[in-house]
Design a protein that fits this description.
about 15% strand, Arc Repressor Mutant, subunit A, alpha/beta, alkaloid metabolism, 7-stranded mixed sheet, protein dimerization activity, 2 domains
Length: about 350
């Protein structure tokens, strides 16, 4: 009996390793489900679909029904889709479970662009160079693709588009939480500059929710030239390490996690110079790691920390690490607000 118990324990622990070995499978099957537009197809159909109905509507043709069945079987196991049993195997139908709504394109909380970015073959390749990335003055992205992530995207417009769309997806998710849950943070602000605002997804949401605020995007010249014109939003070219336009508040969404501590302190000092002594503040939207947290996003946040290390040599930070940066830049105090997104809102008050 003791041996039998030991075998069961050994089997269970070995199963954990097998699960980790094939951890990539769920990510890539998820990517394939998006590329095959499975959730969109069932959603647009308006009711559960049989396997043959689904196969006839997919963007690849002709579809092998047995192969599609096996993919759907795995997606059902992932609890993204529901298989409605029927005595007649021909009449088995598939419908969406709640998480599958995030696989549907065209609505503000769609995660399609993020899925395609994170699982892109090139953007995944630095993970294969994690070992080399541990070496001092080495970078996994450079090892994988021969240049920095920024130089790579500048030389590859198609990949730059995938990256920007993925970032815009993240911006939509966090911006929705920011404007709907943090209205008090924007009280008393008349002017706001979104530093590193990219295509303007975040600041557009702020401007729409708080139309009294005069909003601007501040980014590098090539980013500004490629960004769309947005009503009531001023676009300003520049470099944040040199100067930052003056405003009542500076917004930085997922900017500081790209940089090391000394660079972050330098950026924050520029921000401090840009805001007024009375009522001025810097609004940082970034991840706050908490190793004791049982939050559903905790593991994702840790994964994103490694993602930053591999791609930009940046990092996600704990509250203690954020305090070190804010104090180092000469700010008087800060306040952290948790929102229903991966990121939190850190208000840094310079005076």
């Amino acid at each position: 009996m003791e041996m039998e118990g030991a075998d069961k324990i050994d089997q269970a622990t070995q199963a954990k390793i097998w699960k980790h070995i094939y951890g990539f499978a769920e990510s890539l099957i998820l990517k394939s489900a998006v590329e095959l537009e499975i959730a969109d197809t069932i959603h647009n159909h308006g009711k559960p679909m049989t396997l043959s109905e689904l196969a006839s509507k997919l963007p690849v043709q002709p579809v092998d029904l047995d192969r599609l069945y096996r993919v759907m079987r795995y997606l059902v196991h992932m609890k993204l889709f529901k298989k409605q049993e029927d005595e007649d195997e021909e009449s088995i139908k598939y419908s969406l479970l709640p998480p599958a709504k995030f696989l549907i394109k065209g609505w503000e909380k769609s995660m399609v662009s993020a899925i395609l970015l994170i699982n892109d073959k090139d953007f995944m390749s630095p993970w294969h160079h994690l070992k080399e990335g541990l070496v001092n003055n080495s970078n996994a992205f450079d090892k994988a693709l021969g240049k920095s992530i920024w130089d790579y995207m500048s030389a590859n417009p198609d990949k730059n588009k995938v990256f920007n769309e993925g970032m815009a997806c993240d911006s939509r998710l966090v911006s929705s939480a920011l404007v709907n849950e943090c209205g008090n943070i924007f009280q008393g602000i008349q002017t706001l500059v979104d530093v590193g605002g990219g295509t303007g997804t975040a600041v557009k949401a702020v401007s729409k929710a708080f139309p009294h605020i005069k909003c601007s995007i501040y980014d590098l010249p090539h980013v500004i030239s490629d960004s769309p014109d947005i009503p009531n939003i001023v676009k300003i070219e520049g470099e944040m390490f040199k100067s930052i336009p003056s405003a009542d508040a500076i917004l930085m969404k997922c900017i500081l996690h790209d940089w090391n501590d000394d660079e972050c302190i330098e950026i924050l000092k520029k921000c401090k110079e840009a805001v007024p002594k009375e009522g001025g503040k810097v609004i940082i939207v970034d991840i706050v790691l908490d190793m004791e947290s049982k939050h559903p996003y905790s593991k994702v946040r840790l994964t994103l920390d490694l993602d930053m290390m591999l791609n930009t040599e940046g990092k996600e930070r704990t509250e203690e690490e954020w305090k070190k940066l804010i104090d180092g830049a000469g700010f008087a105090s800060y306040k952290i607000t948790q929102i229903s997104a991966l990121q939190s809102v850190i208000e840094a008050f310079p005076y």
